[in-house]
């Protein structure tokens, strides 16, 4: 039988499917919170509470996932986590009390921790020259799916009510489990050396680049979290206008992925981080200037955010490659530790930015600018440390050559 797709093509499609599936439990689900509260006859705060707890449970689950993957391998562990989140999602469809709902959401979040092993899959199954491209696709797909999540959630709620997002999420998880089972061959070589999440991430290069990736994620996620307040409430955009703007934001993610793929053929990973950080600083500074001296208009928020997206798409894949390459023999715990850092730092920065909007809308631009400057500062620190460690190679920023793609 003729093979339609090569293994690499199937693997990239699998990564895109993981990115799509991972946005459902939080991003697509958001619009259904009021209806769920009405269904269980509880205050909306009771249902909203699990939004804050969800990432924390995911972070805890990822620490367990890394240790388990070191012992049994990535494939069986990510399949087991998929089964957990699938069973919890099916249970949510039949929950008849708010207590059952919260317990099942906790199990759903724990199962979602398996998605944190996606970078380990890239490290194990992809050749070094293709890893950056795979991570560009993951970053781009994730950004696009998060951008369209509000619109998708509204459509599903209109058709099937609050259970709609859970129904589609459960179906996607089932397809993902089958894809993981049939598409991934077991690696012939040992995957990792045993170790905890802490010692896997003990290398300072790992931590440095993990934090850079988290700051870049924070720039993106801050806009996603803050945009409903600024655009819907303060600037009085309609829900459909807002959804259309986020679709356009998703288009810029596709453009950013294309730009990241192009520059990766010419620049080292570190220089890609510098370039992306520069774009993020430019976008954030532009937002500050437009908010301070320009008219109160959606353009003042949206256009600088599009520039930020271009920078995020360049920074995150390069920083993740640098972090994962710092621990090449422990991809499992490195991957989950990277995800935990991203959740904790990126989520915390987004929360601070959202709270700052209670003071003034202009604080959004300042928060994005500080995060972007944080990326650049850490990139400079990394370059200085690298030059001190390799005094005989003053003209280079990295020992890892850039990836070249036809």
Structural class: mainly alpha
Instruction: Please estimate the helix content.
Output: over 70%
- The coarse silhouette is globular
Task: Give, in order, the helices and strands.
Answer: HHHHHHHHHHHHHHHH
Q: What is the straight-line distance between the termini?
A: 28 Å
Radius of gyration: 21 Å
Structure description:
It is globular and about 60 Å long. The protein has a single domain, classed as Growth Hormone, Chain: A, CATH 1.20.1250.20. With 406 residues, the protein is mainly α. The chain contains 16 helices and no strands. The protein starts with 6 loop residues before the first helix and ends in a 17-residue tail after the last helix.
Topology:
Blueprint: H1 7-22, H2 24-28, H3 33-40, H4 44-72, H5 74-93, H6 98-112, H7 118-125, H8 128-160, H9 164-183, H10 197-200, H11 204-234, H12 239-263, H13 269-293, H14 298-325, H15 331-356, H16 363-389
Features:
Growth Hormone, Chain: A, 0% strand, 406 residues
Short description:
The protein is mainly α.
